[in-house]
């Protein structure tokens, strides 16, 4: 066995740094021997000098080869990355090189590249140099890359094979920006999914359920396919179920944009969607997809709150007039309250009503104290309740509510100072 002839092959195929142990294991694999005993002189300075000369020759040849072909991938037999051979090549340097490639190929900002590295911490170890160029030549845009950055962990051959499976059955989905969401699945599963989609669409007008969604919601099919990244249930949901759910929503007056932004509603049985729509329409409440798919308790609460707010608005559509009526004061007093606490101008009757009911009805507090502390009307009701109970439990007599409307630290300091008296 000529060790000098094997040495260049070792550097072409090995990804680790040179050691005599690695070199010995390489020889064992190449010779298909269970054990290889190297001559004793392998550890002598003479043999080491020979290896040093061979390293210099191999490095010069490989450097020339690398400069001529920078797009070799780790899947190629002739792939060689000298940075991995260098002992002093740090992870930070390789990560920086990866981020620079992303910024150059897809015009990413430094912050966007950092976000990808943070979300996919091992991607910089698995990417293919050649895939950057290949994806860019296929027309992959920045937005698609930001959504599926893991595409660069696939070899160009793997990408082409997946794209071929999709485009053969659905030519209008042959753009990588349209079907990239499917590339995370093995070729066998992609082929099975597409086959099922075609079978179930035989009795319908559109070639697939995704084509139906695009047609019904009047959006490009790519926008529908991009939904699969977060709504994978659409892959297995039947064509008939999707069609029935979408038609029920559109017939009830739901906006197409609302359906597109909340396709989760299609997971519900059509009979459930239809029953809830009937309830909302009878109550003259606008139909929203999130209401149709909400839990039964949330659904009932929404109806109750809607009618309470509507009654308040019918009683008095103006917050200033509402405060004048409840606090029994003049308009100038309400205007002064809003000037002292400007956030009150942006409040709604639904927001201030629970606080007013608690203060005036439950605790029977004088309206004048509320007028002096308008901030208390915009605080959380639970906070107001807890602080008034603390004052009463501690025995603090209050002629003003200013301490109830302060920060938690200031309120705690006030209680501590009172206790020390």
From TrEMBL:
Superkingdom per UniProt: Eukaryota
UniProt keyword Mitochondrion, yes or no: no
Keywords assigned: Transit peptide
Gene Ontology CC terms: mitochondrial matrix
One of the protein's GO biological processes: termination of mitochondrial transcription
GO molecular function, one term: nucleic acid binding
Coiled coil feature spans: none
The family this protein is said to belong to: Belongs to the mTERF family.
Protein name in the entry: Mitochondrial transcription termination factor
């Amino acid at each position: 066995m000529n060790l000098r002839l094997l040495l260049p092959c070792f550097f072409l195929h090995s990804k680790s740094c040179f050691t005599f142990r690695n070199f010995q294991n390489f020889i064992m694999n190449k010779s298909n021997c269970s054990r290889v005993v190297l001559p004793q002189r392998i550890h002598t300075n003479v043999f080491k000098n020979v290896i040093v000369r061979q390293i210099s020759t191999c490095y010069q040849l490989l450097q020339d080869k690398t400069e001529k072909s920078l797009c070799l991938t780790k899947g190629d037999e002739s792939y060689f990355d000298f940075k991995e051979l260098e002992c002093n090549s740090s992870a930070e340097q390789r990560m920086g090189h990866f981020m620079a490639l992303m910024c150059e190929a897809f015009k990413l900002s430094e912050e966007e590249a950092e976000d990808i590295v943070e979300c996919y911490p091992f991607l910089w170890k698995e990417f293919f140099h050649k895939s950057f160029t290949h994806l860019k030549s296929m027309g992959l845009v920045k937005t698609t890359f930001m959504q599926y950055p893991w595409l660069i962990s696939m070899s160009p051959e793997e990408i082409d094979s997946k794209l071929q499976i999709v485009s053969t059955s659905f030519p209008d989905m042959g753009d990588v920006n349209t079907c990239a969401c499917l590339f995370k699945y093995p070729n066998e599963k992609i082929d099975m999914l597409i086959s099922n989609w075609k079978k179930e669409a035989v009795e319908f007008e559109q070639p697939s359920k995704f084509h139906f969604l695009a047609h019904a919601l009047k959006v490009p099919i790519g926008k529908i396919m991009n939904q699969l990244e977060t709504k994978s249930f659409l892959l297995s949901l039947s064509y008939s179920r999707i069609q029935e759910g979408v038609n029920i929503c559109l017939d009830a007056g739901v906006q197409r944009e609302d359906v597109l932004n909340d396709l989760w509603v299609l997971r519900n049985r059509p009979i459930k969607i239809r029953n809830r729509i009937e309830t909302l329409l009878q109550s003259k409440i606008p139909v929203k997809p999130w209401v149709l798919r909400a839990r039964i308790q949330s659904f009932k609460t929404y109806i109750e709150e809607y009618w309470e707010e509507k009654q308040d608005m019918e009683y008095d559509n103006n917050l200033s007039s509402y405060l004048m009526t409840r606090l029994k004061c003049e308009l100038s007093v309400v205007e002064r309250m809003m000037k002292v606490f400007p956030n009150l101008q942006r409040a709604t009757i639904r927001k201030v009503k629970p606080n007013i009911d608690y203060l005036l009805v439950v605790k029977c507090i004088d309206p004048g104290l509320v007028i002096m502390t308008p901030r208390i009307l915009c605080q959380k009701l639970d906070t107001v309740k807890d602080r008034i109970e603390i004052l009463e439990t501690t025995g603090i007599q209050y002629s003003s509510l200013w301490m109830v409307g302060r920060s938690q630290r200031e309120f705690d300091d006030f209680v501590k100072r009172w206790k020390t008296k």
